[in-house]
Amino acid sequence: MDPNSQEVSGSSHSSSSSKLLLYSFWQSSCSWRVRFALNLKGLTYEYKAVDLSKGEQFSPEFERLNPLHYVPVLVDGDVVVGDSFAILLYLEEKYPQNALLPPDPQRRALNLQAASIVGSSIQPRHMMSVLKYIEEKAGPGERVSWTEDHMGKGFAALEKLLKDCSGRYATGDEVYMADVFLAPQISIAIARFNLDMTEFPTLTRIYDTYKVLPAFQASLPERQPDAIVQFQFFVDMDPNSQEVFSSSHSSSSTKLQLYSFWTSSCSWRVRFALNLKGLSYEYKSVDFKKGEHLSPEFERLNPLHYVPVLVDGDVVVGDSLAIVLYLEEKYPQNALLPPDLKRRALNLQAANIVCSSIQPLHLNSILEYIEEKVGPEERLRWIEHHVGKGLAALEVLLKDISGRYATGDEVYMADVFLAPQISIAITRFKLDMSKFPTLSRLYEAYKVLPEFQASLPERQPDAIVKEAKLNKAGQPGKASNKEVGLFTSLIDFTLFKIKDRGRAGSEGSFSRQRASSKAINHVQLIFVNVAS
Question: Where are the transmembrane segments (predicted)?
Fold first, then answer.
């Protein structure tokens, strides 16, 4: 048997006309999610081992599949998808049997939120490269406290999120996407990191139900073809101590509310998406400097204490990717995903590179930790390495398929995530963009879009109040609720005026963009005059 290539049968039969290929590494938690999902859907696939301990992820052959050098990668005919979240969403659309998302929007949003907490707020912080860096620069003791802090914080949020809505599984009595992400993550927390789970009774209970599922058992790391070979070297070792290798009008019957903070890049993505869809919304500022994200009121909306949070009637969605996917399903106008599956998968992959492989590693809390424990000079090197690595992967991914925008001549989800990230790389981190000509060109196209201009941090109500409001002594003052409300109404009015915007390149789009930009600037000037 060739351990690097083996056919794996799902729990039923595959409906694929071509053989699915999964590039995986047995210890990779991201690969584990995809194996679990494929088994749940009953899809047969060929297992292609990528030995991370031997550096096979850096081979030219694998780089052509995923320039970020990460597993998993799924190949389905001529469609290549990297990133576990993007793969699962692709599978859900292409192979709808044994659905991983429930039919009602509220529970779909809950599943996406739980999956995103694992994929963006927990797993990126215990990657082997990150843990090795912490151990090398800050000491072995810091590695344990780092893991316990970040994993514990994520689990505490998931416990609060799911305790009142879980059934036999995370969101009811069926196995859905939240379970696909939770099962491997909880297993790793217990077996690899020896995390004390007594504070998380809901997660502990549902994990016990996962362990008896045949689809989960078949996805276990030790049951993969490449693990069988490697375990020959580990027979005398404790497996639990193993080291990991390496707006116009809204069509909603209720007003959308966006809880946001003006400097948050995740909030920025959602503002951009809402503007592109022409959805009016109420801006609810959450001041991080005042600790408003830690208030009991906000914790009820998002136990992870992060913005953005979208409230749409009785549906509450935290996490920017979950929000954008929810908006795409609920409000299909001005689609953010193209109709063909190949380009949809490409958009999801690019968006996930930003929100899972770049942004979580330049959070203020991470950068403050690096500066405090290692030194100020390491902060810059950390940023250049992690942001630069992600942008380099995006450059390779998009250079041959981009048009005016990331995946063609229409603005789609990849652009929604790329535009704020590139802006932050340039303005906040002063990153040298000469290595990324495709991304630099795309950013020039983003900057003239009225919807992007309206989403800029400095044009949000909480930012303008801070920067533009002066009292009679010429010192910063505080705007009244009435003034902020006036501004919000004016923004709604402006976005209403641009509801018939054309995509760039379409007939008349340039004049609409120019007129819309003037209207937005006019609104800003009005508010400055009112608030001064």
Answer: none
